[in-house]
Amino acid sequence: MGSKLKNFSLIGLGVIAGIAGSMQFDATAQKSAATLPLEELRQLADVFGLIKSDYVESVDDKKLLTEAISGMVASLDPHSAYLDKKAFKELREGPQGRFVGLGIEVGMEDGYVKVISPIEDSPAHKAGLKAGDLITRLDTTPVKGLTLDEAVKRMRGEPNTKITLTIARKDEDKPIILTIVRQEIRVQSVKSKVIEPGYAWIRVSQFQEPTVDDLAKRLNAIYAQEPNLKGLVLDLRNDPGGVLPGAIGVSAAFLPKDVPVVSTNGQLPDSKATFYARREFYTSSRAALSDPLSRLPEAVKKVPMVVLVNTGSASASEIVAGALQDYKRATIMGTQTFGKGSVQTIRQLSADTAVKLTTARYYTPNGRSIQARGIVPDLLVDETAEGDGLNGLRLREADLTKHLSNDKDKEEAARAKLDELEEEQRLAALEKKRKPLEFGGKDDFQLVQALNHLKGQPVQLSKTAKIESKKENTINDEKKSNKNETTVPKK
Hints:
Helix content: 25-40%
Strand content: 15-25%
Shape: globular
Distance between the termini: 72 Å
GO biological process, one term: proteolysis
Keywords: Coiled coil, Hydrolase, Protease, Serine protease
Radius of gyration: 25 Å
CATH architecture of the largest domain: Alpha-Beta Complex
Structural class: alpha+beta
Protein name: Carboxyl-terminal processing protease
CATH superfamily of the largest domain: 2-enoyl-CoA Hydratase, Chain A, domain 1
């Protein structure tokens, strides 16, 4: 037995050494391979050998090694992942704005899949899936025990096929059963309309390769209809992010030419970069001779703006909001954003597999890190007049297991709550009574407040913000009181 295990260990080490030798990513990867921890690799090889020799049934070598790679990468942070053939194909399709599935942005919580945000007009959105829902079962398969990647694979599939989800929802005593038909999800990246004379609304629901072109077309259409625009609302609520060039291009549409939009920093030299409001940073090589933003009216750079954000605004959305906030180009309104400020790089392993690896953090033009903190609005405004609804219960980056910390502030700021359980129950009860919010609709409370701000009218600020303001005043009063007290000098 010992001889057999030793042989398998040697084979395992040979396989691992072969993999390390074949990883020709760059000089840094080769340098890392030269300093591999041999003792730990021997342990890995021993386990490989034990499984091959002692496991109850035969296990395929490729499966073992693939799962080992997958587990190793997934242990780093919530956004790093091994991409098999199917996942890699879906990743490449995503930036084009289409894929087959249910249409939800998801994360993990307590071993279950948690809905971060349903994509507008998707099968999941139409079926009534809500942000904050926990998916506990996929058809007859319990979610607990599956990785997020495995759960996502089960939710993806062929068009017009059905999947039954078992949902746990706050303030619901019984599980909710939803049967959803998978469809090709075609996300309409940009929507817009003139709300009333002089004021327009433009929404980016996801940052894709066509986003900059679509934005330019929408802005030109708005100015054709309303040449004397007095105010513009850019809506990034529930926008989960997407491609970086899209974020740079949307920012560049409203900022002066050539200013820094976002910077990145990581271990590798090529992860230390600054991206500017220039054509080469937001157009593909195929479109390098054409700049969609060059045809925009000059007034776009100066029109008063409000940017609407919420907990579902992540990644590329936060880059745009952060840049416009730093340059004081727009008033950011809504609730604190998701806080996904990390860069993922795709390293291809073979023709149809890859690793998605977190390689850097994003920083706003003023050097603020978005990671695990997000963008705090200039004006905190709840989702409704009664409170922040289910938005207040949504998962944020800082809530994700093994999330990357914010290097600018190692101490996580605690979110003040009067009574967390009581507040969650109150918000969930309000949410049950209310119809799903249609962004840009007549009942869009935050949009109304944005228009009020652009017109110079009073804005109804967040009830939580008012409470925090009272707390701050109380603290200041206590400090003033303490100044009047007689103190004994320390010796």
